[in-house]
From TrEMBL:
Protein name (Swiss-Prot/TrEMBL): HTH-type transcriptional regulator YofA
PANTHER family: HTH-TYPE TRANSCRIPTIONAL REGULATOR, TRANSCRIPTIONAL REGULATORY PROTEIN
Family in the record: Belongs to the LysR transcriptional regulatory family.
Source organism, top-level taxon: Bacteria
Record-level Gene Ontology MF annotations: DNA-binding transcription factor activity; sequence-specific DNA binding
Underlying gene: yofA_1
The UniProt record lists the keyword Transcription: yes
Domain (HTH lysR-type) ranges: 1-58
GO biological process assignments: DNA-templated transcription
Length: 295
């Protein structure tokens, strides 16, 4: 029994199918099925029940999963401890962050960091989910969250504000804010016409019509005249095709955290990157907090 086989076993156990595990591991699905069959044959035990819906752990597989998970945690802990001793400003940094923050806010700062530290290589991973920093899926996470995981360390670098925006044409056609009869909000995920965020807005009587569950797509929809949008000020204020709907006040929306694993915080390149990005966020606070339109 070798670690490579156990990694394939873990992927199948977690993903529930050979194809999904193969995609995660970057191998062909036939390789996964062959290695699982070989592992079961070598150990003379059935680890998975093959179902129409995928792979389900058998009793022996559940026991093996517990043991292999402990081994994986120990190996990851050793790797993180070794990485934490790195005192040189070189090497890779895997950074995960939401796409809107990468494309519309931080990309110039990421480029400046690469220029300032030519021996450090940034790998940008776009995601709204929290990659596992413990398993080295990422080294640093820039996350929009009110409650960062307790096993991670870092700092809150901002609280971005949101405001209500519409295109100039939409404002003129619907005579906002004087008349709201024919106007409508662009919804997010809620199926109800008056979710909580609408009721708390300056236009609680405007219903939702249509839903767009992504901030960049919301921005495009508002520009095209889809409706009135509640979006982050760092997206809406720089956009010449949009205007804040009067009275145009912004309000706090979400906290932004800069996070890493506790065993990596002593790594010089991680420290340097986190300090660099914290400074970048500090310089962008007027934009993030919706104050740049008034300064």
């Amino acid at each position: 029994m070798n670690w490579d086989d156990l990694k394939i076993f873990l992927a199948v156990a977690r993903e529930g199918s050979a194809r999904a595990a193969a995609h995660k591991l970057g191998v062909h699905h036939s390789t996964v099925t062959r290695r699982i069959e070989a592992l079961e044959s070598t150990q003379n035990v059935r680890l998975f029940d093959r179902l129409p819906s995928g792979y389900a752990l058998a009793i022996a597989g559940e026991e093996l999963l517990q043991a292999v998970t402990r081994i994986e945690d120990e190996i990851n802990g050793i790797e993180l401890h070794i990485l934490g001793q790195d005192a040189h400003l070189k090497g890779d940094i895997r950074v995960t962050l939401p796409d809107a923050m990468a494309t519309d806010l931080l990309m110039p700062d990421l480029v400046r960091f690469m220029d300032a530290y030519p021996e450090v290589n940034l790998e940008i991973l776009i995601s709204y989910g929290l990659f596992s920093l413990t398993k080295r899926e990422a080294d640093v996470a820039i996350r929009i969250t009110e409650n960062p995981p307790e096993h991670l360390v870092g700092r809150k670098v901002a609280c971005y504000h949101c405001a209500t925006y519409a295109s100039q044409g939409y404002l003129e056609t619907h005579n906002l804010p004087a008349e709201t009869t024919n106007a409508h909000w662009i919804g997010w995920d809620s199926p109800t016409p008056y979710p909580d965020w609408v009721r708390k807005s300056e236009f609680p009587d405007i219903p939702i019509r249509g839903r767009v569950n992504h901030p960049v797509a919301q921005l495009a929809a508002a520009k095209a005249g889809f409706g009135v949008a509640r979006i982050p000020c760092f997206l809406g204020d720089p956009e010449p095709a949009l205007q804040r709907v009067p009275p145009g006040e912004s309000a706090p929306c979400q906290d932004v955290w800069l996070l890493t694993h506790k065993d990596l915080i002593s790594t010089v390149r991680i420290q340097t990157f986190m300090n660099f990005m914290a400074d970048a966020f500090h310089k962008k606070l007027p934009l993030l907090e919706g104050r740049e339109v008034n300064e």
